[in-house]
Specification:
3-stranded mixed β-sheet; alpha/beta; about 280 residues; about 25% strand; 8-stranded mixed β-sheet; BirA Bifunctional Protein, domain 2
Length: about 280
């Protein structure tokens, strides 16, 4: 594509950015337009569409640590963001133009190239790992999630910069005695971030520029900076209450016990007593 409409939402809470994601996705599914965007999350936990929140999270600890919790319209596992821990990206791409493969795994690989190319700016080699991760030196540095409409797909994900593993574990439904230095070390063997890989602190503004380069390189395009239209803003405001609503956030756990329903433990948590 010659040009790609692009937005940077800056520092934003999970309710507003998820409402914006859905609004942009809905309207683009009508128009067939492609859009790229970035944001920096505040302390937040965004659950996948089908996850059982009370099975995954210790909600009392989440509140004590001031984490905002909501649910998104795409699948996958939880997206945990501690303070200044990452930059997240979104891409809405046409399924009709041929720029995005129809095959799910191939489409993930195509869009995850944004992160792979962003890592190149730091002299790092990113490797796509099906179905939706990017590895750096064999460790996960990026995850993503996707949903599809009639004409477009929405994929959003993250590039970890300074990830707080201990706080993530405290927010998860793991007994406190399991959250030890040994447990944290076992997670560090699977997860990484830019600061660990480079041995220095990387400014989030620098990461934003690297991801913008990733968009340009992946789609051979020029980014055209833009803002949401009046129609998009209006729909996002209309959708916003949904992301605060407990009927949406707890839709799969309300009225159920922790011993019912299907549940898949994240691989990173299996060695730490996740159940």
């Amino acid at each position: 594509m010659d040009e790609l409409r692009f937005m940077n939402f800056g520092l934003i809470d999970p309710y507003r950015i998820m409402a914006a994601n859905e609004a942009l996705f809905r309207i683009a599914d009508r128009t067939g337009d492609s859009i790229g965007f970035l944001w920096t999350p505040v302390k937040s936990i965004i659950m996948g569409y089908s996850q059982l929140i009370e099975r995954e999270l210790n909600l009392e600890r989440c509140r004590e640590l001031d984490y905002h919790v909501t649910r998104r319209i795409s699948g996958g596992g939880m997206a945990f963001a501690s303070e200044s821990s990452q930059v997240q990206y979104g891409f809405i791409g046409s399924l009709e133009s041929g720029e995005i493969p129809l095959d799910v795994t191939e489409s993930y690989e195509r869009v995850c190239s944004i992160v792979v190319h962003a890592l190149e700016k730091y002299g790092l080699r990113g490797e796509f790992k099906p179905i939706n991760d990017v590895l750096c030196n064999g460790k996960k540095i990026s995850g993503s999630a996707q949903t599809r409409g009639n004409r477009v797909l929405l994929q959003h994900g993250t590039l970890l910069v300074d990830f707080n593993i201990k706080e993530m574990l405290l927010c998860c439904n793991i007994p406190l005695e399991k959250i030890s230095d040994k447990g944290i070390k076992s997670i560090e063997e699977r997860l990484t971030d830019l600061n660990r890989q480079l041995g220095r602190k990387v400014p989030l503004s620098d990461v934003e520029e690297s991801l913008k380069y990733g968009f340009e390189k992946t789609f051979n395009t020029r980014l055209v900076e833009d803002n949401m239209t009046k129609e998009e803003k209006k729909l996002a405001e209309k959708l916003l209450p949904k992301y605060y609503d407990e009927e949406w956030i707890f839709r799969y756990t309300r009225g159920r016990t922790r011993s019912t329903g299907s549940y898949e433990v994240s691989p990173e948590l299996k060695d730490l007593g996740g159940r």
